[in-house]
Amino acid sequence: MPEITYVGVDGTRRRIDVPAGTSVMRGAVFNDIDGIVAQCAGNAQCATCHVYVDDTTVDRLEPARPDEDDLLDFTACPRRPTSRLSCRLTVTAALDGLIVHVPERQK
Ligand code: FES
Fold first, then answer.
1. What is the reported pTM?
2. Beta bridge partner(s), residue 83
3. Residue 93 CA, ligand 1 centroid: distance in Å
4. How far apart are CA 68 and CA 63, in angstroms?
């Protein structure tokens, strides 16, 4: 099962096995990762599942689609080059080892 590492604002790291076919957001919510709110439950409407993908693993991702790209302009914490909506990151074997950082706030 692909392993995703979630890094909290305080630097705490949690490595979670997330089933392929789900999302990085669901891996966080089902495992009580602080700071991933996901108010719209993955419908690309809230931007409260914002994460900063670690520079060392960002190259594993496909570019954001237009709907994700548009919504990233409305995150509570500033958008960065590695910002993504975790509900739009479908977990696959290619993402094994992905590292994401949780922003200071989501709303
Ligand atoms: S959960 Fe709402 S945009 Fe991702």
1. 0.96
2. 52
3. 22
4. 10
